[in-house]
Amino acid sequence: RLYQIPFGMPNCEDESEARTLYLVGDFSAPAEFFVTLGVFSFLYSMAALVLYLRFHSLYAENTKLPFTDFCVTVCFAFFWLVAAAAWGKGLSDVKAATRPSALIAAMAVCQADGVLCNAGTTPAMGLANISVVR
Questions:
Q1: Structure confidence by residue, pLDDT tens digits, 4-27
Q2: Rounded Cα–Cα distance for residues 105 and 89 (Å)
Q3: How many domains are contained in the chain?
Q4: CA–CA separation, 59 vs 62, rounded Å?
Q5: How far is CA 122 from CA 8, 38, 44, 100, in A?
Q6: pTM surpassing 0.85?
Q7: For residues 132 and 91, is the Cβ–Cβ distance under 8 A?
């Protein structure tokens, strides 16, 4: 929900007053889908572990239970692939929306003649990139 994040932009004409710039975009849906699927996968894994360890005889005697477990696991694997792809796309969109050059281009004060705007440092996205790989 980048549209909720304000940036104070200096006004070169009047130093005491700053203008506010809001980012554009809402990329929360892919992240929420990714996290929700991760939570459900964890809960299913814990339930399956209880079933395997506590009710092993029920699991061994019932022929439909292993097949059902296999089908649910395949569905989780497919949705995990979809969620990882969605989160990867969402992250690339967040990177594009928060790129320093894009922010500078959106600031009207930086477009005036004789004004030189510099972003300083590039934001570190290493941990976000790792979250997509995992």
A1: 777 766 666 655 566 777 777 788
A2: 23
A3: 1
A4: 6
A5: 18, 30, 40, 7
A6: no
A7: yes
